[in-house]
């Protein structure tokens, strides 16, 4: 009887692992897993990166999805793929998948493939910039179709005030300040504030706010996080209000933010939870239909940040906003 049970266990063991190893036992699929370490890409984007037909790429993605190596994420009418967010260390299949990820991540991506990834990101960035260039005059009206500014700005400001009262913070960075509505909050709490935006039109509006309200301690910079990394800047607090769903690679924003933070510094993000209202892409310039809280946590962990307080705000129109904080190192928060 014991030998029969042992045999049954061996069969069950094989049935769990065989599909995973079969699905991952292909050089191309391993490359796809490496590309999806932090990013979420669509079938067409992956086909472009790997110079193959969409039908062929779809086949590989479906095999990996069926084995649990990937999970689909619907963005409007398109299907994007990412690595699974929730892997249970107590399950054999999940632990095996985690080990596969850890193994493939040890090898850097080839430079030609990195260049193709960057080309996709640039396409996304151009799409976003084109929207803001066309609609800068109506930006507030468009954005408030989803959420009025005060609904997320005030809870975010209150969290920052609470933290700033207990920290000796001197500098703050706002990524994507938009029209500059949040800059008065930061300028009133920090001796030095930097506002970073890649849209000239939006930066011009933020500049007007600073002039009108006499915010003399705010530096407005046109560029992206790479611009500040190249300068060697570092900050005590970084804020990204409703920005991540507009950027080509949200995970990279968290990675760059971590590199721009002092030890003990804090990153505060307010953004949409995942939703299915595709009209937001055309009307508000959104690249992503929100994010699962687990996504933000996973990206932050990968960047070496520790999750702190979180707040979820439900809106009458069906959207939900998440306000999250992440610390560079353990803090007495």
From TrEMBL:
Source domain of life is Bacteria
This protein's UniProt keywords? Arsenical resistance, DNA-binding, Transcription, Transcription regulation
**Residue ranges of every copy of the HTH arsR-type domain listed in the record:** 9-104
The keyword Repeat is annotated on this UniProt entry: no
Molecular-function GO terms, alphabetical? DNA binding; DNA-binding transcription factor activity
Entry-linked InterPro entries: ArsR-like_HTH (IPR011991), HTH_ArsR_DNA-bd_dom (IPR001845), HTH_MetalResp_TranReg (IPR051081), SAM-dependent_MTases_sf (IPR029063), WH-like_DNA-bd_sf (IPR036388), WH_DNA-bd_sf (IPR036390)
What Pfam families does this protein map onto? HTH_5 (PF01022), Methyltransf_23 (PF13489)
Asked whether the UniProt record includes Transcription regulation among its keywords, one would answer yes
Give a GO biological-process term: response to arsenic-containing substance
What NCBIfam families does its record include?
HTH_metalloreg (NF033788)
The protein's name in its UniProt record: ArsR family transcriptional regulator
In the record, what lineage is assigned to the organism producing the protein? Bacteria, Pseudomonadati, Pseudomonadota, Gammaproteobacteria, Pseudomonadales
């Amino acid at each position: 009887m014991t030998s029969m049970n042992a045999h049954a266990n061996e069969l069950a063991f094989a049935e769990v692992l065989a599909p995973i190893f079969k699905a991952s036992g292909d050089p191309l699929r391993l490359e796809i897993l490496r590309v999806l370490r932090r990013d979420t890409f669509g079938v067409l984007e992956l086909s472009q990166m790997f110079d193959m037909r969409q039908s062929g790429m779809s086949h590989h993605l479906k095999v990996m999805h069926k084995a649990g190596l990937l999970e689909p994420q619907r963005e409007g009418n398109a299907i994007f793929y990412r690595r699974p967010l929730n892997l249970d260390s107590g399950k054999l299949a999940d632990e095996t998948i985690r080990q596969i990820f850890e193994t493939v991540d040890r090898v850097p991506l080839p430079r030609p493939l990195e260049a193709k990834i960057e080309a996709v990101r640039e396409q996304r960035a151009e799409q976003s910039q084109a929207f803001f260039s066309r609609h800068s005059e109506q930006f507030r009206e468009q954005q408030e179709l989803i959420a009025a500014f005060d609904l997320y700005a005030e809870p975010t400001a209150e969290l920052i005030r609470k933290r700033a009262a207990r920290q000796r913070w001197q500098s703050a960075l706002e990524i994507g300040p938009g029209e500059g509505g949040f800059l008065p909050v930061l300028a009133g709490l920090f001796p030095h504030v930097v506002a970073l935006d890649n849209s000239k039109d939006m930066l011009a509006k933020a500049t007007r706010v600073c002039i009108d309200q006499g915010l003399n301690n705010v530096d407005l910079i046109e560029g992206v996080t790479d611009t500040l990394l190249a300068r060697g800047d570092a900050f005590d607090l970084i804020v990204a209000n409703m920005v991540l769903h507009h950027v080509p690679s949200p995970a990279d924003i968290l990675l760059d933010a971590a590199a721009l933070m002092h030890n003990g510094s804090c990153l505060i993000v307010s953004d949409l939870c995942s939703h299915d209202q595709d009209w937001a892409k055309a009307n508000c310039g959104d690249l992503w239909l929100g994010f699962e809280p687990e996504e933000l946590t996973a990206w932050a962990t990968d960047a070496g940040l520790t999750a702190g307080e979180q707040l979820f705000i439900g809106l009458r129109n069906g959207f939900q906003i998440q306000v999250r904080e992440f610390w560079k190192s353990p803090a007495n928060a």
